[in-house]
Specification:
PilP; 3-stranded antiparallel beta sheet
Length: 174
């Protein structure tokens, strides 16, 4: 029984300490200062300019580091009406790229013949005699261990067409 009055007195003592404001005067003054500050003092976020993308469209043009082709008007070849590209055939994938972007990197051979490996257009491609390569209707005419011969059909500028031979030489490892 002695315990209950002692417990009662102790709890009364503890609860009496909770009611005083003596220890919170500094907190109360800080809160009054924060409430007294003017509202809207936060600066707005800066406006960001949107990124404008740029698409490089000159990749398929002649390199500015290659000399331009000089054509002598007197010795210029005349086109023929007999030579012309077959516009009705379905284009192959490698005809969408300039022939200057391709390099021969190797050959493969089997019972059906010799194939060449050309690097360009995003990878290494296997080509055979009769396949087309480049934008100027270039048809592969022969393949040997060191080069790929291509015959292109190009316009002569006067309504005719010319056959122009090209070769892709084997690129040696450096």
């Amino acid at each position: 029984m002695m315990r209950s009055p002692l417990l009662f007195i102790f709890s009364l003592f503890v609860l009496s300490g909770c009611g005083s404001d003596n220890g919170f005067s500094d907190l109360q003054s800080y809160m009054d200062e924060v409430r007294a500050r003017p509202k809207g003092s936060i600066e707005p976020l800066p406006k960001f300019q949107p990124y404008e993308s740029f698409t490089y469209r000159a990749a398929s043009l002649r390199s500015p580091f290659q000399p331009p082709v000089k054509v002598d008007m007197v010795s210029r070849q005349k086109g023929s009406q007999e030579v012309k590209p077959d516009e009705g055939r379905i284009k192959q994938f490698l005809e969408g790229f300039n022939i200057e972007t391709f390099e021969m990197v190797g050959t493969l051979g089997n019972a059906s013949g010799l194939s060449a490996l050309v690097s360009g257009a995003g990878g290494v491609h296997r080509v055979r005699v009769g396949d087309y390569l480049g934008r100027n209707h270039g048809r592969i005419t022969s393949i040997d261990g060191s080069k790929v011969d291509v015959m292109e059909i190009v316009p002569d500028g006067e309504g005719g067409w010319l056959e122009r031979p090209r070769s892709l030489s084997l690129k040696e490892r450096s």
